[in-house]
Amino acid sequence: MEFITGNYMLKDIQALRFFAILFVVFLHLPIILPNNHTYNELRNFTNTDSGVELFFVIAGYFLSLTLDKSSNHINSTPDKIVYLIKIYIKKIKRLSPPVYFWIAIPMLFSLITKNSELWLPYNLMMEKFFASFVWLRNFEEIGTEGNFGYMWALSLEMQFFIIYPLVYLTFGRKKTIITSVVICVFMMFYRPGGGPAWMFRFDPLLYGTLLYYIVSSIDLTKLSLQEINLSPLKKSAIGLMMIISLAVVPQALIHLWTFRFSAAAMISTVCVFLAVMNTGFFTSFPSILNKIVSYIGGRSFSLFCCHIPVWFIIFQLTHGHNISDSSRIVLQILSMFIATELTYQILEKPFIKKK
């Protein structure tokens, strides 16, 4: 769920990143809000796990954009190899600093505090650290799940970013598109692996790549809904309706376990399509709200990496102290945003390619 590739940036895409990370953080709130009645009631008709699909569709879209714009002049095998290596190095440099830092923190706390109930046994935490370090966390998580399993998504994305460009440059655009369509249709009805298959749902990334090919083949200036006289209120209502659908529809399809992931990917694809038309469906809120949405959306990767470790750090630091649950929760939320900003400024921003 890396959140930007290259210089192509749209405000609506940043807004979608805001909603995606909001979904992910909401999904993880039981860590700090155990047995909360209001939260449980909301979860009865929503499933914000679909925020991952939204992140993946965005990532797939920008990967296709990069490949399509940069690889047309590459013909010889040596040039393809060099190009692939450059893509991999750029991706690793972009993701690694925040990821490696925030997988090291739980490992260090596990080693120092020996609080196995909070941080897991140090040998298991070490196993998770190295699995994350080599981008195989989704494979490791199948056998030993833990509170820090959220890193599976970044491992899956890295695996996709390694395999997809290789397939694209080897077999060409047409065969890659056909194969992607076949895989997406197949995964509507069957997902290999049974129960753990939810950690291998790479089809939303394929939906994102296919969306780019569709968008690049049409004239957005003619299709653009800017020609339709929609007020900011109506645009916001449509945008929020799509976001709400992304939370509600997969939950309504809970008994169609395989297809609900595809449904989330489809809704996410529509959201990204509306966003790349740059018509303001996700940025027509009042100015102050747009600034908040853009600010958090721009830091969504850092927030994703740090939110759970920070919550556990506060658990560790407040253990044994006379502090109320409400005060601890406030401290965890504040610390999460402070850590997000520091992570963004120190570990993420320096590695974002400037235009």
From TrEMBL:
Q: What is this protein called?
A: Acyltransferase
Report the residue ranges that make up the Acyltransferase domain in this protein.
12-339
Question: What GO molecular function terms would the record report?
Answer: acyltransferase activity
- Xref: PANTHER family: ACETYLTRANSFERASE, ACYL_TRANSF_3 DOMAIN-CONTAINING PROTEIN
UniProt source species: Candidatus Pantoea communis
Q: What residue ranges carry the coiled-coil annotation? A: none
Which InterPro entries does this one have? Acyl_transf_3_dom, Acyltransferase_3
List all membrane-crossing ranges: 15-33, 99-120, 149-169, 176-193, 205-225, 237-257, 263-289, 301-317, 329-347
Question: Keywords in UniProt for this one?
Answer: Acyltransferase, Membrane, Transferase, Transmembrane, Transmembrane helix
Q: Which Pfam families match?
A: Acyl_transf_3
Kindly indicate whether the keyword Cytoplasm belongs to this entry: no
